[in-house]
Amino acid sequence: MNRFMPWLIVPGLLLAAPALSAQRVGGDVPPSVITVSAQGEIQVVPDRAYVLVSVQTRSSSAAAAAGENANKQTAVITSLRSLGVKDSQISTQNYTVVPETRNDNLDHTPRIVSYLVSNSLRVEVTDLATVGKVIDSALSHGANQVSSVDFFESQAVDLYRKALAEAVANAKAQAEIMASAAGGHLGSLLELNSSGVRMPSPMFGAVRMAGVASSETPIMPGQDTIEASVTAKWVFVPNE
Length: 240
Prior knowledge:
Layout: E1 13-16, E2 33-44, E3 48-59, H1 62-82, E4 90-103, E5 110-125, H2 131-140, E6 145-152, H3 156-181, E7 184-198, E8 224-238
Antiparallel strand pairs: 1-2, 2-8, 3-5, 3-6, 4-5, 7-8
Helix pairs in contact: 1-2
């Protein structure tokens, strides 16, 4: 699932009253319209997570740093497999070898003093009860950084469609109330637009070093909201 930025939509209502000074075009007066913005919301408990774990090693030579990193990352992957994580759920997200320099005291010429190797894995966890175990196992077998834990809902697309349908229903209900209060009813639908969506976003981000915790790391996915927003426009028909 994935990742998206959170934002707030404030529903707004606008009734375009009959224009007394409407210009006639071809003998026709433009119809009065009702324009409504509305939201639909679906509360969701995440059922999946992505954990980003990294192994960082440093040595005086690139080969030595890379070799140590490879050994530790292999141990991390083996430990994840022992927890039931499949290879298809493990993917390399980033691998870098960076020389670290220091200025010489005599002529201030930078010289390489070490190499930093970083290898990051994204681990998909399908059982949220094991997220803490995945983190702890990775840290205890050589990983020394956990960059993020991103919770998501595997059926987010279907849930968004439900939220979208709810938004349309809310818009129509609001428009009908407005039309009735104004002494009329809704005519044909002129325009319908989806103007926004809010999907679950990353719930946790932290950096932890190996050996910090001796007990299982508690991870709480909580609850999130999938929101859809629409804007719709109907013809306003005065009652006879």
